[in-house]
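How it folds
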Amino acid sequence: MKEGLVIPAPENVSDEDIKLINKFTKRELKKDEVYVFSMILCDNEIDRDYERFTNESLEKLSNLFVGKTGIFDHDAKSKNQLARIFSCRTESLKKNNSLGEIYSRLLAKAYIPRTKSSEDIILEIDSGIKKEVSIRCLVENNICNICGRNSNSCIHKKGKKYLVDGKEVLCHYILDNPLDAYEWSFVAIPAQVSAGVIKNFSNNKSENCFDIIEKMKSEFNKKGMQDLFRKVQKIENDVKIGQNYVTELRDEVLKYFSFLEPQIENSVIEKMIDSLNFNDLQKLQKIFNGKSFSLVKSQLATENHEDSYRHSEFKI
């Protein structure tokens, strides 16, 4: 979703609530000793980062977030610990997301002990000052919806539209198989411009390099970061040049395939090409370049053939 939000309606502490809360306390608390509120943590919609959780991922997150601590601005210091999630579940609404699927979201309930020091934050929640939240979690895969590959081996660019089966499809990454939920935070402005949801991606261990770059951009004004960031900018520029080259290479191979086999629909050929890596595309380009003259010669040779009408669309 675009940002996680605290649900403004006040919560009455139920018998079930206090029972679940006391699983996390050293002594049994009473209803009047805790403040309870609900939050929407994330959903199955494509966010402004062009990423989305699947329903299965939301279900896994609903288990992983139970017991997780709420802090401020993702600053993981013990003094910033404020609240704890004691209940989390998925919820489906009677509407569809942008993909036509039933809209689902992750709904959590958290508690804050009523103390002298927590009076101000409780008032800020009730008054709507503290309402934006974001989450940190780890997922095993971020899969391209166009080619089905992990983002680290995919040539497609999220946010760009591609022709699939004759229709334009928006490229986005599918966040699959959550491995861990770290924490959730109250934030004044979501740390990422997109969605107010912080997502740490990993193929088991390492963070996604693009997320690291975005974090570095936010640190640009700090001492010692300018030179490093300029180097990163150069790398980003080189990556864009490489991506443009791969796109041109893909389009050229597609053109040759379409010329050789005009009876095959472009959408089928595109699926074949999308499954190829960079080296395969280069090899095909060299093969096709070497045969381009014979293709033209073969085309002219069929001029008087009884089936020449099949090739008339290539005549000038």
Summary: Residues 228-314 form one domain. Confidence is low (pLDDT under 50) at residues 190-207, 292-316. The chain has two domains: 4-208, 228-314.
